[in-house]
Structure formats: C-alpha cells, structure tokens
Amino acid sequence: MSITVPSRFLRKILPIAALLPMAGLQAQTSDGAGASTVWEHSGWGGGGFFYCAAYHPSKDGTIYMGGDVGGAYKTVDHGLNWKAINNGLASYGVFSLAVDRSNPDTVYAATEGGLCKSTDAGETWVTLPRTDKNDLRITGEKNKSIHSVAVDPSNGSNVYATSPLGRVYKSTDGGQTWEIAYEEKMPVEDPGVLRVQYGKVNNVYFGSLTLSKFPGGESGAGSQGIGFTFKGDGTLPKDAFFIMKTKDGIAYRSKNLNTLYQDTTWRDVVLKASDFVYDPQYLKAHPEAASQPVNPDFASIARFDLTCSGPIPTTPAIARLKRFYFAFEPAEGGSEPRLVPFADFSNPDAVKAFQTAGNIHLGDAPASTFYSVAVAPSDPSRVIAATAALGLVMSQDAGKTWKELKTPAKASSAAFDPKNPNIIYGSFFADGVMKSTDGGATWKKISDSFPDKFDVLDVAVNPSNPLNVCAIGKSSWTGVFLSSEDGGNTWQASGKELEGGSAGKYSNKIDLDEASGNPTMDMLSADGKSARLSAPTNIAFNPLNPSEIFLSTNWRPSLSTDGGVVWTERCRGADISCITDIRFHKGKVYASAMDEGSLVSSDNGKNWKQLWPLKHTDDLSGHNWRMAVNEVNGNTRVISTSSPWSTVKPQGIIRSEDDGNTFTVIREGIPNYVVMPNTMWGRGYPRALAVDPNDPQVVYLGIDGDPEPGKIGGGIFKSHDGGATWTQLASQPGGRRMFYGLAVDPTDSNRIFWGACGNGGGVWRSNDGGESWEQVFRNEVFIWNVVVASDGTIYCSGEQLWRSKDQGKTWSRITNFPEKPRAMVGIEVHPTNPNIIWVSRTNWGNLRLGSIHKTTDGGDTWTDITGNIPYVGPHTLRFNPETNELWAGWVGMFKTKQ
Fold first, then answer.
1. In which domain, by residue range, is 509 found?
2. Model pTM?
3. CATH classification at residue 308
C-alpha cells in the first residue's frame, strides 16, 4: 500500500503493516439510510494544482477541469461557480480531459486509476475496461500527461490515448476495447537476466527487490553465505544494501554495496556473516541486540531485500541479476566456494517469486512517456503524438502507420491548424515552439522571443482564427501566457506586469475575483488585488466564443474574455485545499490546511478569512497541521502547528491571544532543523497537538522522527504556558514515527496517549504527564489517530477502530470493515453521547476509495454515511454541537446535519 500526500511540494510512499486477526467480533456494517447522506461543500476553493481543462462543445459556459488530488470539476457559468463531479471516477488524480464533439455530453478523464468516461456531461463516470495501471496503463499521471486523450471530431467512436509506457492506443468503439496504434521500440534484455531499475520519487531513490518464499523450498542449511550474480550500470547510488530477516524476526543489513553498481561486468558477489550488522531499524526495537555478536544463520532466512536509496543521481540505478545462491565451503581440493542457486532467472518461475516495493521497475528498459495526442479537425486521418524521447510522431492513416518527425526529442504537445492540416504547431519544453507548414516534413522554431528558462507545455490554435496561436510555459512556480496574431511570427505576453513581480515583462497578472472564495495569500501583488500566473498546465478555447480562453494552473485557474489580455481568477467551489484540522468556537469555524495556512469563517463556512500567513514569507508560508482554540482569561487563543515550505526555519507554533488578529511564531525549544530519520513522509512534521482539557496552559506537541548524534529529533514536546515556550520531554515513547495520535485524558490530566507507526508502533501511555511511558496496545503497529472521550474511554485506529474502557489495560475491536487496505484516520465522539461515534477511512492513495461511518450504539452496528461527499476518504472529522453538524476535511471541506 502507498500513501499519497496531496501537496504541490510533498509526495512520499509508505508501507502499512499487516493486521493481526481478531475472532468473535460482533460489530457489523450496514449501508442503510446513511447511503443518502447529503454533504454540503463548505470550503473556499482553489489553493492546489489544476492540471487540465476542456470546454463543452455546445453548452456555452460549461467547462470541465481536473486536479491532482481533488478529482474533476464542472462549471456551467464560465467558471464563476464550480462543483466536484467525482461520482464513479476511478481516481482523484485527473491529468487530461477530452470531449466528444459529435456526442457533446461525452467526456473522457484520464486519471491515475484508468481512463474514465461520462455520457452525461460528467455527472457520472465509468472506468473503461483494461485501462488501469496494472493492465494497459491508459492513465493520466502527474508530469506525464498533458493532452493524453483525443477524440475523432467526425466519429466519436474513434478515441486515441497515450500512455506513460510509450504507446499510443486507439479504440474504435468508444473506449471499450483498445489496440496499440504505435509504440516506442526498446532494447530487450538478454535471456536469463533480470533487470531491476530503481526509480526516482520526491528527490529520493528508494525501492527493494524482495524474496519472501524461496523457490522449491531451497534451504541454506550449512551454507557460509548468500550471494548473487550481478552487473551494474556505472552509476553510484548513495546507499545499497542486502537486508535479511530470519524466521525468528532478527534483521541483518549488509555493508554498503553501492560501489557494485559502478562495475559494468558480471561478477559473483558473496556475502558472509562478517559482511552483516544488525539492521538499525531492528536495533531500535531490540536495543539489547547491540551487545550481542552478529552471526546470521543463513538456513533460517525468511525474507531478504536488495534495496537502493539516497539522493537523486542524474540517471536511475540499474542492477542486472542472473541468479541468487547460497555459498558453501569449497569442494574438496578447491579454493572457491560452492554456489548453489535457489533462484536462476533463466527459469521464468524464478522471477515470479520476487516482489517489489517502492519505485522500482522489473524487466526490459521502460519506454519514454508519451505526453499528448491530437487529431486534425479538418482531416481526422491525421493524428500526432508528443513523446519524451522521439519528439513528435505522426500518422496520416488514422493510426495504422506512423513516422517520426524531425523535431527536438522531447515534445510536450501539438496542435493542428483547424482549417489546414498541413500547418502544425509543436511545443518542446525548453526548446520552445516550432511550426511546420508542409505536413510535418520540415520545422521552424518560432519562439526565439520567448523568455529564457521557461518550459513550454502547451500550444493551441484558435478554432475560428487560425492565425491566433497561444502557448503557455512555466519556470518553477512562475507561469507565462503568450499569444500570436500572425501564426507565430510575433508574440506578446498578456496583461500588465504584476506590481512587485519578479519575472519581468512576462509576469502575467491575474485579477483576483472577490467572489472566488479563495482567500489564501500567496503570489500576490502589493495591493492584494492580483496575483502572478503560476505554472499553467492546459489552454482551453471556448469553441462557441473563441475570444474566451481558460487556463488550468497551479493555485488559481483563470479565464479571459478578450483573447488573453486580461485574466480573472475562476475557482470558487473547485476545492482542492488539503484540510488538516477543523475547530469550532463561539459560532466560528477554524481550519488549518497544507499549503494555505489557517483560516476562520464567521458564517459557518460560506466565507473565509485568512488568519496566517497574510503574505508570502519563506519562514511562514507552507503547511499548517493541527489547531487548538480555547477561551483563556476572556480571550480566544488560537494555536496551529506549522512547517514552512522553506527548510531554513522548519517547524514551529503559530499562536494568537486575540482570535487571530495578531500572532507570533514560536520555535524555541522545537527542533531547529528538518528531522529526517524514521519519519512518515520523509521529514518530520508537527502533525499532533493536544491541549489539556482541564488546563489550557498545558499543551503537547508531536513531531515525528528520531534523534541523530547531536540532534534532538522529534517526539513529544510540552508547554506549561499555553504554547509560548516548549521543552522536549526527557522520556519518549518507544516509537516516534506518528501521524495524528496524541491525546490527553480529560478525566486525568496526567494520563497522555501517543499513537506510533512502524517499529515501536501501537499506543503508548504516560500516567505522569510524560515523565515515563509504557506500551499498552500493539495489536496494530500503524496507529493513525488516538481520541479520548469525555468519560475517559480511549479510541485508537489503524485499519480498524479499537476501544479501551480501563485506561488502556484491555482493548476490544469495535469495527469489522472487510475491505483492505484501508487506514482509519478520522475519529470523532459525540461530546455528550459517547455511544455516537464517527470514523473515516482512506486507502492512502489517489484512488477513489474510502468511506465514512457512524454508530449510535457504541460500535455494535455501523451505518455508512459516505453519501454524496465528493471526496470519500477525509482525514479529519469534527462535530459541532452548536449546529449539530459533522464536518469532514482533507481534500476539500464538507458538512452534514447529524
């Protein structure tokens, strides 16, 4: 299972531990009346990354848009108001959209979970057969799909789609079946060789080739070592290890094997006992082993992993393997060890015995990404695709045959002149825009006047004026829109230079729409009335009024009604905010979010006001995680935990004593560096916050991550003055990797609970205000949340919900949800009726999997109340007793009467 964090700056993958079975559980789940639960959108819209857009061909003002974590959106009023249209969508990552001109209500959405189709203008979706990642991989993927779907304008049955695996597919029955129309030819690996490519994710190399069941039951009894026949690719990853785990659970790690990758010749690598130490992760849970000699018993190996990790090199690290073997004493009279294979890759069954984790590719070299495909409006037999290694490739016979065009190797998109199919425009990232006037035979660069260091991602031609050509590009988070009125001979940037902008004359300005509902403060002008265009992704012309253009972008999608001269923000209701906490106090609603800080609403979610940050600053702009709102001496104290995008001043506490009117940032006593070891998402985040219900001056803060030599690491921190100063607890739980699991028992302020994940995972309890800790729950080792109800009942959640009525001495499981894998993150208990509990579940990925459940009898029975919520796996559930509403937050924020 993998965890996907919806953020412009963060994406990590994390394994979730297996559950221990429980018998005799009576709790059941029923859909019942809860299936019709109606949720109301209560967020502000905007604030994330929108990747694609397309207009309805016959309904003026109807636009579709897709985002990286929020799914698909639709507007019928030119972007003034949006709604999520995720019913049936395979995934919340939508990276390309296409409409069928001959069947105007038919829309295609390329998602991370497969290609989806709607025949009712996006109101409902079905996933087309065989399009998911595990099959044909006709998917939309971040940074790999720009216009990955195209429909024949004269025959809607003909659909073309590109794949990140280097293929163009064609369907002649509206997506029900697919054939490969074109594919990149890649070298085939030699017979009997297993090729293992360790890939790149979030600036970190990681992955493992795993064997947990030895083929044919081979045993290493009597062996003196273990090894493999290996050939590297000339690279040097930072770390490469061989990790073994025995049947008794003892884990060993080899010496660093990274230099093996530099050797491009075949060699036998034999690892003996002297080449191993106890695995550092094993020692954290078993510190007593550090004093014991290392003597691995190769006959007792239950699992091994060949891993690779470290900072990104210029190319992936590639290992080639022929066999794995046990090494025995040399035969009589010999000097070399006897190598007895237990996995020989000349046998295909040997490959099947291995598994992979992390970002890893097995087999032949993967093909390059195919970004876009387009069909000529005036001659649908002409189809062109933009690829990452072959440039533009084109077919003139509706996909039967193809030829590579003489263009730069890395192409992002292409567009035909709407009236003359011999005129073609192509965009080529750093190589700009090129034009062909002879059907692709020759090409001329037409973007020499573009700003330097911009990658051009999309080019589009006005459907009614072929001389009007537009292009968009980005440099980091800055964006540019350029247009030409003479077929690309000359170009101009739209709008005026943004006051205070940093990108010179190409700093396109977006006028902020006061009705947009997006109050977040980032990339703004000095007067706060306009913003920079940020990282545009798609150009969409309104076919019924081509002077209207819509851009999907980072943060603020925008619309122009004058051909791209003036742009106005259009995102109200297109909520892509990642809500991390929700709180209520005296008729107000407070919310914290990744990327956007903290906000408050005085009208129950209709409108929102920014609390902080009020402008972009490196030490404050970024993620807020958890909030606490308390009345202290007649004033409203608001606290939120913070981790800026910048790592110069990492995590901190933002504290206001006057309801957010003024605030201070507090970092004293908290790690002044980015915590890295043993963290959930690659770095430590201040994701846990708990105020003593009996004394608002006592506050606890949780940051995940272990200490290092000379560095204090994360763990639990305590404040005795309402968050003004902090001290790391001298005693810490046995696991510091955590998520939201931190709570104080309202019936005893000295009793604190901490939920840990991974090694040392489970629930830890302190009975003395954090002076000492003991583990009281270990039935699951990934604990996402811990809640203590007003009567002292404790709830913790992994994949199921567990309850203790005796301060953690004994536990019972009160849910029995069958679907796996799911993580239960949101827990809420009614403040006056402890028999009413709500929980939410997610799959930690971008697939549309998750649910919300309610019990009114203390967990004996459960009702599914997921209803029509557009995002089915919220992480935060909060009940507002003033309005009798349950609020849900993660991607977007929603509420329902309860």
1. 45-185+367-569
2. 0.88
3. 2.60.120
